[in-house]
Amino acid sequence: MSVSLNVLLVASAALFAIGCFALIAKRSVVVMLMGTQFMLTAGGLALVAFANFGLGTQHRENGPALAVFVAVIAVCELAVGLAMAAMIYREHRTFLTDEYESVGG
Amino acid sequence: MLLIGTLPSPITSTPLVLVIYVVLILMLGGALASVLLRNLRYAIAAFAGTMMSVALLYLFIQPYSSARALLFGVQLVAATAVPALLMLGLLRRTSGLERPPSAPYGREVVAASLVTAALLALLVVVLGMAVWPIRIAPDLFVGLGRTITDAYVVSLAVLLVLLLSSALGVWLLLGQRGERRPVSQPVTGQHSKRRPEGRRDA
């Protein structure tokens, strides 16, 4: 019993799939934004896994460095997305996307 | 590109492997729960648990790397605490948190306290096992921190610009006064009664 690159990549793919499911199948804007966070986090997890168990071991700090950048960019994206959700909520009084008739300006 | 040297061997220490598998199961279970739960407060709690599991995973899968302290901290703060607080703030501004969830010592509060205490205890155990607080300063500024500030200077600058732009965008969006959509007029004449506006829940 061991933990190798394959185990972490499978976990990363599963997390990415859950995020994808949230983005495609769910109706709430907040849950969809959570899905994007999961997808970005899955990418960061794969980067760290490659840096520790894969071909990235010659430059072991690079994978985690990119994961740090991904985490901060994910926060930026979430902040803007939540602000847009708050603005849309003011007009439509719901977070459910299928009740938005138009979100254009 | 040729690989110089050999790949590192996988983690085989039985307690560490068991802990990693438990954290992986918690991560995926929390992600599923946050997607499937209908109550947004519970979904946000599950989201925070998932992200904390990822932070713990970063700590466990690189036991000898100097990058783990900074990565763990960034994941805990930037990917767990800040998004959870942002989402709770959104609910507070809009719909979800006006009502107190339950009595001060109701079942939900007790369950949340137990989960929080368990996570904190796990964190203390991890920190105790890793002797992390003693080595945090050299870890931060010799390994990953130095890589980021030396090799990724342009990326760091771009990241700062992104952070500032998103902060400005959020400020502009939240400061904007949106116009309410006009409520549709009743079709019938003076005898029609307006329906009270029902509040649709999120």
Give an overview of the whole structure.
The complex is a heterodimer of chains A (105) and B (202). Chain A is an all-alpha fold and 105 residues long. Chain A has helices at residues 5-25, 29-53, 62-92. In chain A, helix 1 (5-25) runs antiparallel to helix 2 (29-53). The longest helix of chain A is centred in the last third of the chain and has 31 residues, at 62-92. With 202 residues, chain B is mainly alpha-helical. In chain B, 68% of the residues lie in helices and 0% in strands. In chain B, helix 2 packs antiparallel against helix 3. Chain B is flat. At the A-B interface, helix 1, helix 2 and helix 3 of A face helix 1, helix 2, helix 3, helix 6 and helix 7 of B.
Give the overall average pLDDT of chain B.
72
Number of helices of chain B: 7
- Percent range for β-strand residues of chain A: under 5%
What fraction, in percent, of the residue positions of chain B are helical?
55-70%
How large is the radius of gyration of chain A? 17 Å
Strand content of chain B: under 5%
Question: How many β strands of chain A by DSSP?
Answer: 0
- Tell me about the biggest sheet of chain B? none
**Average pLDDT of chain A, to the nearest integer?**
86
Structural class of chain A: mainly alpha
Topology of chain A as a string of helices (H) and strands (E): HHH
| Low-pLDDT windows of residues of chain B | 183-202
Number of strands of chain B: 0
Q: How far apart, in Å, are the first and last alpha carbons of chain A?
A: 56 Å
Largest interface: A-B, 68 and 76 residues
Kindly name the structural category of chain B.
mainly alpha
End-to-end distance of chain B: 51 Å
| Percentage of residues assigned to helices of chain A | over 70%
